[in-house]
Amino acid sequence: MALLQVKNMTHYFSGLRAVHNYNLTIEPGQIRGLIGPNGAGKTTIFNLITGVYTPTEGEIYFNGANIKGLRPHQIAAMGLGRTFQNMQLWRHMTVLEHVMMAHYSKLSYGLIGAFFGTSKRYREEKEIEDHSLELLDLLDIAQYADQNVLNLPYGVQRKVEMARALAIRPKILFLDEPTVGMTPEELKGMMEVFRKVHKEFGPAIFLIEHRMRVVMELCERIQTLNFGEVIAEGTPEEIQNNPKVIEAYLGKEEVE
After folding, report:
1. Per-residue b/e over 121-151, b at no fewer than 16 CB within 10 Å?
2. CA 43 from centroid of its chain's CA atoms
3. pLDDT tens digit string along 140-193?
4. Which of 33, 56, 136, 166 is the most exposed place for a label (fewest CB within 10 A)?
């Protein structure tokens, strides 16, 4: 059974069709890529699958369950983690607090535990802190645990966001432009992070990325989106040499 299956997904914004008849199948542990020109609808597809928007048409199945119409926190609790193109970081929180906060959809001690400080609450919160520190150590940023996240270099902030996405122990990880704004050295380091995360935790990965080097080196299969529709799908080699993909990126005149 596929881990994630999207069937004939279409979405309109005030009568404007943003996504048309989109289909996707991701198997456990697979790394898939989604590319396309700016404005093609890539992030909209992420938002539709993760519950930010509800598709106008179509169905979405995650781990065998229909998740269409569920809220983002419900889908995250089922094991779908994501990062954002524009990082969602809080000014007043440390690195460790960011990662610990991401665990709270998994807490089970309830209101009574929160108000009365039960042993279950303290045990769960200690487990959360330990797991958060393990993630920071895995990503080589444990030394920043007590620092305010917005005071840190951009590449470190991206790793914090990755650690936060991993906190829910995802079965699948959505990465939306995770290397945007990085220097070549930071890019190299982040690609190693992707490989380490996949090796250590084994999640499927669905990646939006504009840097072709990242997509071509990491992904097993790639979709190309243009004006909300998939125009090509295949291996990195097939995508790289597909005339429709070249035209979408360079324009028809350049291709000819």
Report:
1. beebbeebbebbbebbebbebbebbeeebee
2. 10
3. 999 999 999 989 988 889 899 999 999 989 999 999 999 888 888 888 888 999
4. 56
**In this structure, are residues 131 and 103 in contact, taking their beta carbons and an 8 Å threshold?**
yes
Task: Quickly count helices (H) and strands (E) in the chain.
Answer: 11, 10
Q: Phi, psi at residue 212, to the nearest 5°?
A: -65, -30
Helix (H/G/I), strand (E/B), else coil: 44: helix
How far, in Å, are 104, 120, 129, 161 from residue 167 at the CA level? 9, 19, 10, 10
pLDDT, tens digit (0-9, with 9 covering 90-100), for 215-231: 999 999 999 999 999 99
Neighbour-count burial of 234, counting CB atoms closer than 10 A to its CB (0-12 exposed, 13-18 middle, 19+ buried)? middle
Q: Is the pTM of this model over 0.85?
A: yes
What domains does the chain contain, in order, with CATH numbers? Answer: 1-81+171-256 (3.40.50.300), 88-167 (no CATH)
Structure tokens at 60: 């979405």
User: If we measure between CA atoms, which residue out of 89, 79, 81, 72 comes closest to residue 158?
Assistant: 89
Residue pointed to by tokens 């990126």: 249
CA–CA separation, 164 vs 154, rounded Å?
A: 15
